Amino acid sequence: MTIEHIETAIIGAGQAGLATAYHLQRRGRSCLILDGNEHVGDNWRAQWDSLRLYTPAGYDSLPGLPFPGPRWSYPTKDQVADYLAAYAKRFELPVRTLARVDRLQAIDGKYLLRLGADSIITENVVVATGTFGRTPSIPDFALDLDPSIRQLHSSEYRNPAQLKPGSVLVVGASHSGTDIAFEVASTRPTVLAGRDPGQVPVRLDHWSARVVFPAIGFLAKHVLTRRTPIGRKAVAGVRFHGLPMLRVKRSDLQARGVDRILGRVTGARDGRPVVDGVGALDVSNVVWCTGFRQVFDWIDMPIFGADGWPQEMRGVVPKAPGLFFCGLAFQYAAASTVLPGVGRDAAYVAEQIKARVGTSVALAA
Ligand SMILES: Cc1cc2nc3c(=O)[nH]c(=O)nc-3n(C[C@H](O)[C@H](O)[C@H](O)COP(=O)(O)OP(=O)(O)OC[C@H]3O[C@@H](n4cnc5c(N)ncnc54)[C@H](O)[C@@H]3O)c2cc1C
Question: Residue 191, SS3?
Fold first, then answer.
């Protein structure tokens, strides 16, 4: 059992954690990044085979290193993983992999992180456990479906070959659900169930995206923020509901013969999924594109609201000085969770840490 003492621990070596470390480094502050995975970027590598970003390469750069590739190309998930690994290497960021934090507690004005038998005591902690640190959200009634039905969450889906012969029900019609439904529909009868989240009016590979995308980017970064009434109104929608379709459009789903049902999947009857307004469906497969839940049960501090979200502003937790978040959905703006927007939040958090360390050094003097 080892006990280490460090100035700042960053939990998560995704874009949020790496960008925060970059900004701390630029401010002359030391840190250690802990990640449960074996390699930086593994979570992207584990995404479905055909996943491409919805944001063009020209917008996907983290601070200090341009994302490689043509500006208006859409990187594959493996290219994102490679970029994150290259980023950590380029700036020699102190990443420790295979280091899962099981528990985080406050102790004597500092923080105690438990990693199996080992412990780290630190002045500051940045929780940057992002999307992939979250738990797949699957309704309880999925347990009542007939065991002969193959069930996958979108985070487990890789390609159509995983599915059993026969039809598939894709639940949830945000961009993951529509992309997956469009893909599997090329191999079998496909039903896509769930409300229509709207769709971005341009095709990502059409020239008009070069006009519309900058506008969306500006909106998501500078207008939809927690500083504006319209931004504050949008927080819950971004955090708890699916976002509009981006790559695949309604017309694509129709052209590929996807049976599009707007009703919700509400339960199980005789082991079959029940769709509101339609009834029980005979399917061989179900893919749950129903998002993720924030689960911070490993953080043992009274800093969470009734909705399970940390009570923070721009990642700063007033109730726990020295505890920060980065990469939270709508941490500051609608763009906080995506590559184009995370750098600003990371810089802000790093600046708070620098100020805090500066104060404690001055007080100690
Ligand atoms: C399907 C999909 C498509 C997306 N497409 C885009 C897109 O096109 N453009 C875009 O900009 N964004 C996109 N995003 C959103 C966003 O960029 C990603 O979710 C991104 O991964 C968030 O980065 P992050 O650093 O916040 O978290 P993550 O990348 O999830 O990194 C968190 C890290 O924390 C680690 N971790 C978690 N818990 C612990 C623990 N207890 N101890 C140690 N380590 C831990 C994990 O192993 C992981 O490596 C997409 C997301 C998804 C799911």
Answer: strand
Over 90: is that where the pLDDT of 22 sits?
yes
36 in ligand 1 pocket by Cβ < 6 Å? yes
**Tokens of residue 30, six digits:** 């030391």
CATH number 3.40.50.720 given to 137-200+244-288: no
Is the CB of 12 inside a 6 Å radius of any atom of ligand 1?
yes
Count CB neighbours of 65 within 10 A. Answer: 14
CA of 311 to the centre of ligand 1 (A): 21
What residues does each domain of the chain span? 3-133+294-364, 137-200+244-288
- Ligand 1 contact via 179 beta carbon (within 6 Å): no
- Give the residue, by CA position, lying nearest to ligand 1 atom 35: 12
Among 41-50, 66-75, 204-213, 352-361, the minimum mean pLDDT is found in: 352-361
Question: pLDDT tens, 271-322?
Answer: 999 999 999 999 999 999 998 888 899 999 999 998 889 999 999 999 999 9
φ and ψ at residue 272, rounded to 5 degrees: -110, 145
Residues 6+ apart with CB under 8 A from 125: 8, 9, 10, 11, 104, 111, 113, 322, 323, 324
Q: What is the CATH number of domain 3-133+294-364?
A: 3.50.50.60
Establish whether domains 3-133+294-364 and 137-200+244-288 are of one fold.
yes
Contact 132, 328 (CB under 8 A): no
The CB of 131 under 6 Å from ligand 1? The reply is yes
Express each pLDDT in 211-237 by its tens digit. Answer: 999 999 999 999 999 999 999 999 988
- Tell me the mean pLDDT in the region 165-180: 96
For residue 139, what are its two tokens?
Answer: 């309704």
What does the DSSP 8-state code read for residue 99?
Answer: -
